[in-house]
C-alpha cells in the first residue's frame, strides 16, 4: 500500500500518453509521512545503461523509504520532458526529480513547479535559469581533468587526440569538455585535432569516430565524454582500439568495465549512477517534508583502468 513504484519506459509512455504517467500511484493523503509522499522523476533517456542504473538507484531507495515514485523517459526530447514536469505538477507530486535533457530548456518548467511550491531536485545535470532545491551530481569538471591525465598517461604524454562530445546543451557534456580541455593543456606534446558531438550514443560514436579517423589518420588518442560513445569508437577503430589508439571514456558502465578488462578501452572515469539516484530520492523526500537540505551533493568520481578495474567490475 505504501510502497508503490510506477515506472513508465519509452514504449509505455508513448502508448499511454504522458498524462498517464502517475496512474499507478495509489498512496493518498497529504501528510508528511513517507507513505503519503508521491515523487515524480523524469529521466533524459532510458536508452542508455548509465541512466537505467540511475533509475534503479532511485527505485530501490523509494521502495526502501516506502514512497511512491513515478519514473518517465523523456527520450532525449526536451519538449517532452517539459510536458512530463508539467504533468507531475498537475498530479500534485510532493517533489520532482529531473535529469535534464537540456539544462537551459528545463528552466521554465522547473520555475513553474517552484510557483506551485513543488521542490525540484536536479540529478546528474544542472538546471539553468531556475532555482532547484538540490543538485545531486558528480564533479564533471574534475572528472574531465582526470580523463585528460589518464589519457596523457596512456599515450606517453604525446600524440594527437580526438574528442567525442555529448549532447550539446547538457551540463555534463559542457563540464566534462571544459575539464578535459583544461587538463590536457598540461601536456604540450598532445594536440587535440578534432572535436565532434556524438550525443552520448554508441551508434553515433561509431559513425563519428569512423569519419574522424578518415579525416585525421594520425589520431593516437580518444576522449569520449561517456562510455557509450567510447564503445562506438572501439568498434570503429577495430584492432587499433586500446593499442595504437588509446581510448578513455566516462561513466564506468558495466560494458565499459568489460571493455577495460578486454583491453580495448584503456580507462573510464567512473561515476556512481545508482548512488546518484539514491541520493536524489533522499533529497526529494526531505524537501517534500519541508526539511532543510544542502544545495549541492557531490558524488565522487575515480579513474578506472586495467590496474584497478577488478574493484569496480564486481560492484
TrEMBL record:
Q: What broad class describes the main subcellular location of this protein?
A: other
Q: Where is the signal peptide?
A: 1-20
Annotated family: Belongs to the bacterial solute-binding protein 2 family.
Q: What is this protein called?
A: Monosaccharide ABC transporter substrate-binding protein, CUT2 family
Residues annotated as domain Periplasmic binding protein:
40-292
A GO term for molecular function = carbohydrate binding
Record SUPFAM superfamilies = Periplasmic binding protein-like I
Give the matching InterPro entries. Peripla_BP_I, SBP_2_dom
Amino acid at each position: 500500500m505504501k510502497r508503490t513504484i510506477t515506472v513508465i519506459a519509452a514504449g509505455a509512455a508513448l502508448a499511454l500518453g504522458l498524462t498517464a504517467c502517475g496512474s499507478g500511484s495509489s498512496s493518498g493523503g497529504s501528510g508528511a509521512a513517507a507513505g503519503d509522499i508521491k515523487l515524480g522523476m523524469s529521466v533524459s533517456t532510458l536508452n542508455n545503461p548509465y541512466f537505467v542504473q540511475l533509475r534503479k538507484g532511485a527505485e530501490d531507495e523509494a521502495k526502501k523509504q516506502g514512497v511512491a515514485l513515478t519514473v518517465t523517459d523523456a527520450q532525449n526530447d526536451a519538449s517532452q520532458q517539459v510536458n512530463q514536469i508539467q504533468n507531475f505538477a498537475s498530479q500534485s507530486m510532493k517533489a520532482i526529480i529531473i535529469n535534464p535533457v537540456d539544462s537551459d530548456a528545463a528552466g521554465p518548467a522547473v520555475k513553474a513547479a517552484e510557483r506551485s511550491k513543488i521542490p525540484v531536485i536536479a540529478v546528474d545535470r544542472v538546471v539553468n535559469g531556475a532555482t532547484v532545491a538540490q543538485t545531486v551530481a558528480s564533479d564533471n569538471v574534475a572528472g574531465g581533468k582526470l580523463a585528460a591525465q589518464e589519457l596523457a598517461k596512456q599515450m606517453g604524454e604525446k600524440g594527437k587526440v580526438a574528442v567525442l562530445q555529448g549532447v550539446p546543451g547538457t551540463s555534463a557534456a559542457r563540464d566534462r569538455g571544459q575539464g578535459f580541455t583544461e587538463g590536457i593543456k598540461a601536456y604540450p606534446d598532445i594536440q587535440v585535432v578534432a572535436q565532434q558531438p556524438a550525443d552520448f550514443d554508441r551508434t553515433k560514436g561509431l559513425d563519428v569516430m569512423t569519419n574522424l579517423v578518415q579525416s585525421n589518420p594520425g589520431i593516437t588518442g580518444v576522449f569520449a565524454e561517456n562510455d557509450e560513445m567510447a564503445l562506438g569508437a572501439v568498434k570503429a577503430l577495430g584492432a587499433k582500439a586500446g593499442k595504437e589508439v588509446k581510448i578513455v571514456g566516462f561513466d564506468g558502465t558495466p560494458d565499459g568495465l568489460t571493455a577495460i578488462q578486454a583491453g580495448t578501452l584503456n580507462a573510464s572515469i567512473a561515476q556512481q549512477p545508482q548512488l546518484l539516484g539514491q541520493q536524489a530520492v533522499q533529497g526529494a523526500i526531505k524537501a517534500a517534508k519541508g526539511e532543510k537540505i544542502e544545495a549541492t551533493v557531490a558524488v565522487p568520481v575515480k579513474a578506472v583502468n586495467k590496474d584497478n578495474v577488478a574493484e569496480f567490475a564486481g560492484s
